[in-house]
Amino acid sequence: MNQGLDTRALLRLMAWLSPAFPIGGFAWSGGLERAVADQLVKNATDLEDWLATLMRHGSLWNDAVLFSEAWRHFEDAAALAEIAELGLAMAGSAERFAETASLGSAFVTAASAWPAPMLECLPADLPFPVAVGAIAAGHGVPADKALAAFLHAAVSQAVSAGIRLGCCGQADGVKILAVLEASIAQLSERAPSLTLDDLGGAAVQAEIASLRHETQHSRLFRS
Length: 223
Prior knowledge:
With 223 residues, the protein is mostly helical. The protein is built from ten helices and no strands. α4 runs antiparallel to α8, α6 packs parallel to α7 and α7 packs antiparallel against α8.
């Protein structure tokens, strides 16, 4: 596959991972809301550390692995079904399962505005990173560029959630994105070599926060 990113592929990538793309990503925090309520994340520094840890050892790391595997197998319906099943099984809580499955389904529906043969290979239920990875590959978007955009969108969404939860301001949020830029780039450059053997994590507090959010009475987010 051509590793260059042409203008049309770039425009599609920008559209798919824009906050305006109709998948409802703004409604989810991935357990961050509970982390703020439990004072695990109190300020911008904490939020930066939280997100960096998720990329190294938590859900964003595993999402990057699933994304990369789906990108490689975008034309193989059987492989995509197995990757999707594994990704859904790895959800650490009911809310995390609902989040990734809901976003995955909504992404496929919205991205169908750009018809492509790979859409026929996608299973009915799939995690968000599997959906984005396979569809990006089907439209000729290089793995590293697609993963970088995916991770940047995920971090941006988390920062936006942090701003709404009051743990940082807009200026601090922009600084977090600037600081994490290098981490996003480094992980994205590993996309061609990431396989299912790399799955795993140790972000225990984040998983607990996601579980505890299920019983949180007052909330802004669905997870």
